[in-house]
Description:
By secondary structure, the protein is of the alpha/beta class.
Amino acid sequence: MKPRIFRPATRWLIRLLPLVSVPAAFAQSPPLIIVEDHGGASALPYYQALDLQPRTGSRPSPRIEMPRLPEGPSGEAAMLPVRSAHLAPGDVAPRAIQAPGLTPMFLVGDDQRSHAWLRQRAPALRELGAVGLVVQVESPQALAALRALAPGLMLAPASGDELAGRLGLRHYPVLVTATGIEQ
C-alpha cells in the first residue's frame, strides 16, 4: 500500500509538468525568421563594397541646410519662357492607358484652343483634382491670364517634351488620368 503523503505531491508534479515543458518546447523550436529568403542573393557584398565605418558615440548628424527656392512670381518668371518642341496645339484621339496611382494632369498652352478648352473643362478638372502643366507660355502675364481662366486649379509652367515622349503625345490641350488620355 502506498503512503498517502505522496499522492498530493504527484498531483502537484503533474500540474507543474506542462509549465516546465513549455519553455523546453520553445528552446527546441527553430529561430524566428522575420524575412524569409525566397532564393535571392545576399546583399552583404553590396554593403561591404560601401566600406561603411561603424558609428561612434552618439554625436548628432550635421545639419544640412536646404537651399531655398525663390517664392512667388519671381521664381516662376525665372522658368519662363516655356517651349515644348515636341508638342503643338491640335486634336488628340482618346485612348486608354494603365497608370494606377497617377494624379490626373492636363497640358495646356497659351493659345486660343487651350484657352477655350480650359474655360470649358475647368469645373471637371477641379472635380478631378487635376494639376495643370503649361507647356507653351512666354511671359508671367500670359501665365496669369491662363490662371484667371481656371481659378482654383494649379497651373505650373513646365516643358512637356519628356512627358509627351513617354505618353506618345504630340498635341495639347489634353487630360491624362490613370486610365486614359482624352481631349
